[in-house]
């Protein structure tokens, strides 16, 4: 692990050798003294930057608004594949069954073929998007392991194919077509309710999808809705109520991920809580047992090699696509507009400028002490600020601001997606995948029934991680109280509690299912000293940094805030942790920025202060007591004082603290946390901008059937990108299937020369079109570039037979067919070149090759 951490530091240095940052000062905390955020309509973002009203806009601009800004010296544009769009289908069974076509798997899969992704990417998004078929696109590093699956499934825009499936299945479900060409189910029109968002390109996507459904004979009730209405209807109601049948989802990415373990579960598996029903007890809940089992194994590291991980991921991915609960549409190249004088920008290849723990801390405009930040919204009714996993911080608006306020323990590198230390250091030891550590007698786990820490001596775990929280402990929380190891251990205990206490599980079942996915594999914790713990986790990964990232907890809020949340949600039950809980129990969805909610939390602490309530058992681990009653009372007073001063209960430990938020006026103000105990200064975690590899040309000479050949790949590789990894294949244009696909290989120089072996060339048919397919990415910026080129192999020229005649007739030269070359290349995220070029550049070159014919007498050109 030590070697791994050192390697990561070298990678960071190599990638950003040219990145320069001059801090405005050397004080603890961020570069700027204040961040002032406000809501700015997307249409006004560029003009607001030009006028100096804001310095940066952190919501992705519409393509039609961003394109004219290319080359404008009064603004700076940053791009990143930081979002994507999908259409979620409601699979709840109806009675009779023909009333909900999307309950049928075959009809859902047919929906993959009614979406013209190329049109959406190039026309609706003006080239600021790329077609996508899963939760991953070529801008996600893990995409490399499933890229060929997408090709082999042959999904494309094909209404005739979709119509064939729908006609067959609807008839089998008992539906009939009327003389008007519409489907009827027991005399009633088969009506599909579509919730279509109106704020952005999703209106066009929804209308296009609705029109396709109407062409298939369905009656569509188009409901045009805004954020709050859509979120409440789709994610806050039982799917079996059929308040919706499809919804135009939009997603903002949080960070680049090198090896995906959780997204596949989020978008495919029921247990994660993001599939229809949302794991709410008593509602219809979609589930596929095989997908659940495969994704659970991936999530918990239940594989023995990288090859097994790849195999599990590929199987789950293909099943998820075939289930088609979600039909993925496009990955968007979000464009962020900024003041060209804004310093300290890190463009995360997975999140852009939003959802960042790197940017706000380093932003500043020379000569100014404040940075003005525009966002689409500062707050919405769906922006719940509470620390319950899957309960709060589930929308981009709450997440984007909160990540400016706290320091995570670990985070993913913005260019590699590799987990790295942020405010903890760690050492990983593992005996996995087959071996295990035996937990010592002084290792403990929280028992939700006994409400106590209990010894887990003798239990087994594949790995253990020593975390040192020294950069937290001894520093202060925003309310001035020192951070303690007790804060860390309380959060571990609380996660175990809400995942295993039967009453708490029943109250927030979706939360419990999600949290238990991680806490079930953390087997115990051993306290080493005042700043370090040893976490035993029954989890293995071929990358040790992932073992650490699965075992770590971030102390983002002091334990007394968690205690107050626990009392409000689970004990007093006056509030809900999640949206679905709020709907089910008809109580407010807890948000600690709302004054009445924050007051309720402060009242809990006031009650604890007045009655001298101290949950001592949460802090007694073996013969150690991590917190005292007097310290607890001091914490209560500090938190209550905080509420009285700021009228909210968001207390954290990062470079800024929340000074004010006015939800009615869409205003937020963050102020620098200049406490001398804060460990970081401006310049920490600055990375700048990186550029992925791009494929410039595929050069294919004439390929002869049965003979080996070579292909030359020209690449543009940025400095410091490291080794190049690539994989290639040959696709039959007729079937869409691979004739051959290679293993992944690597190179250190360009161009790359690929040899087509004789046995592969022997599988080809002369004068038939094939597609040469390749992807490439680099070691330090693992964003996939993917390209194809059509070629037509020729027959092998026959070997001339020697003739006894001194003047033999020349052997006929074979006719060489016309070659059609098509190259598809996605531009690099993070560069403004992508804005003008569009996402997919298609170059069709028709080359008529000269051919020789042996002239015979009488074969000259004749007139008729």
From TrEMBL:
Residues 799-815 have a biased composition (Pro residues). Keywords: Membrane, Signal, Transmembrane, Transmembrane helix, Transport. The chain crosses the membrane at residues 834-853. Residues 795-818 are annotated as: Disordered. The keyword Endoplasmic reticulum does not apply. GO terms for biological process: peptide transport. It holds the Pfam family SBP_bac_5. GO terms for molecular function: peptide transmembrane transporter activity. Residues 30-254 form the Solute-binding protein family domain. It comes from the Archaea. Belongs to the bacterial solute-binding protein 5 family. This is Peptide-binding protein. It comes from Pyrobaculum aerophilum.
